Amino acid sequence: MANPWVGPVGFRGLRGEILVALKKAQALTAKALADRFGVTPNALRRHLKELESEGLVEYRREIRGVGGPSFAYSLTGAGQALFPNAYESALVQALEHVHAREGTAGVVRLFRDRWEAIAASAKPELSRLPVAERAHRLAALLTSLGYMAEAEGDGGSATQTLTEHNCAIRLVAQQYPEVCEAEEQFIEEVLGTEVTRQAHMAKGASCCAYCIHASPTPDLASVASTQSGQPVLWQESE
Question: Does the pTM exceed 0.70?
Answer without folding.
Answer: no
